[in-house]
Amino acid sequence: MNCVGHIHHGLWKHPRDNSVDYRKPEYWIELAQLLEKGLFDAVFLADIVGVYDVLGDGIDVTAREAVQLPVNDPSYVVPLMAQATKHIGFGVTANLTYEHPYLFARRFATLDHLTSGRIGWNIVTGYLDSAARGVGLKQQHDHDDRYDRGDDFMDAFYKLLEGSWEDGAVLADRERGVYADPAKIHRVSHDGPFYKIDNVYNLTEPSPQRTPVLYQAGASKRGNAFAGRHAECVFTGGPDRAALAKIVSTIRGQAVEAGRERDDVKILSGLTVVVDTNEKAARDKFEEYRAYSSPEGALAHMVSGTGVDLNRFGLDEEITEETLEALYPDRLRRVGEARAGRFAAGTTRRKLLEARRFGSQQPPVVGTPSQVADEIERIVAETDLDGFNLTRTVAPESYRDFIELVIPELQNRGLYKTSYEEGTLREKLFGAGRARLPGNHHAARFRTWK
After folding, report:
1. Helix (H) / strand (E) containing 64
2. Whole-number Å distance between alpha carbons of 406 and 276
3. How far apart are CA 119 and CA 237, in angstroms?
4. Luciferase-like domain: which residues (predicted)?
């Protein structure tokens, strides 16, 4: 994330962490080169367009602990990283709720051109009231309404990128003085329930992928249906492996219902790793990291997803669904079932803070390269996941440790590539010759030419 503190809050304070350099071009260039050395598929750039201002009804914790604040736009660092690399892709988060598809399509087509087809878009619809207030709304739209808007946005987006310029429209004929054949550039009209486009052409010529690789994260029933129709890569998670396996199966089933193949969706889950050459060294490193973590920062992050200020509860007072409903009669409904309270019996603020002693609710895998590889194998075998989104702890040390210690172990087991394939990001993920969205994807119906 283009910020100081992302997932594991407080670790920016570690003396070997360089996250405070996020404003410098060298930070991003060196990161991309390091990850390409490790043969990573992509740099995933998260983003928010609001602030975490729910805990304590303000930003005291958020600002003090740099909980995704300050945060810069993620898209502008992509050309820097692309210029310094050849293969690694870039997944950029952008909130469609506060965009218009006409200009947004141009922006991502431009990024696809500048990266030679290595761009992806992580589609989000938002979850922060502070973001809505920042653009003049009283509060964000209801959960399912945001996905309804999202479906309409995507239809317009596809019309622009898939249905306007034909592949043979660009001639670049110097002798005849013809750059593009106007007969092969088609008008785009969209009259949807939320977005209107009235007889305009897409502004950019076709990029290597036309439509960026489509990422999406959503755990709700409505979010899974959206993913089944649109997403090529889905980020998900669950409280345990059995629950995660069920979610993975549901998402693949949604893709089939949308007329796609089960394997048309790559499903990923978050993974945090603290690794060293022996188990004691790994445990010592973990404890060293944890000494700098901020459980309170992690709680400020968490409660902004539900919109409920847990500081209104005593440290050992039980947090119940009934109490939350009484305090926030309509809030939990608006954020949707995936982000509603859902607190287990006996939950207290003290217990929530204790569970976030590493600055996040995500438990890390701690151990030797062999132990980490064993755990990765088990997770994939038991859940049918395709891969992982590796979160940063102390950066760039945590990436370098994974690259130098874990990846060779995975390669020895035949579980990780030993070189990049040529081609676009979509081809690297789905195979040669698949630079564009396939014919069974929802976007294909908006191709007005053959």
Report:
1. helix 60-64
2. 9
3. 24
4. 23-380
Task: Going from the first residue of the chain to its last (450 residues), give the mean pLDDT of each consecutive group of 10, the final group possibly shorter.
Answer: 96 97 98 98 96 94 97 98 98 95 97 98 91 87 88 97 95 98 95 93 95 89 90 92 93 94 95 98 97 96 87 91 74 53 80 90 93 97 96 96 98 97 97 95 88
Separation CA 393–CA 415 (nearest Å): 24
Report how far residue 123's alpha carbon sits from residue 169's, in angstroms, rounded to the nearest whole number. 29
Asked whether 11 and 20 are in contact (CB, 8 A), the reply is no
Within 10 angstroms of residue 57's Cβ, the number of other Cβ atoms is 10
- DSSP assignment letter at 404: I
Q: Is 422 exposed, middle or buried (0-12, 13-18, 19+ CB in 10 A)?
A: exposed
Task: Assign 157 to helix, strand or coil.
Answer: helix
Dist CA 44 CA 74 (whole Å): 10
Whether 397 contacts 305, CB under 8 Å:
no
The tokens describing 256, both together, are 């089939």
**261 vs 254: CA distance, rounded Å:** 10
C-alpha distances in angstroms, 4 versus 23, 71, 119, 239? Answer: 9, 8, 23, 27
Q: How far apart are CA 306 and CA 321, in angstroms?
A: 12
How buried is residue 183: exposed, middle or buried, by Cβ count under 10 Å (0-12/13-18/19+)?
exposed
**Residue closest to 159 by CA, chosen among 119, 123, 105, 110:** 105
Task: Say which residue the tokens 């060196």 belong to.
Answer: 30
A 10 A CB-CB count for 214 gives 23
pTM, two decimal places = 0.94
**Pick from 343, 232, 254: nearest CA to 246:** 254
At which residue do the structure tokens 């992806």 appear? 120
Would you tell me the crossing angle of helices 143-163 and 101-114 to the nearest 10 degrees?
60
Q: How many residues does the chain have?
A: 450
Quote the CA–CA distance of 78 and 408 in Å, as a whole number.
28
Structure tokens at 25: 């071009």
The residue assigned the tokens 């898209």 is 75
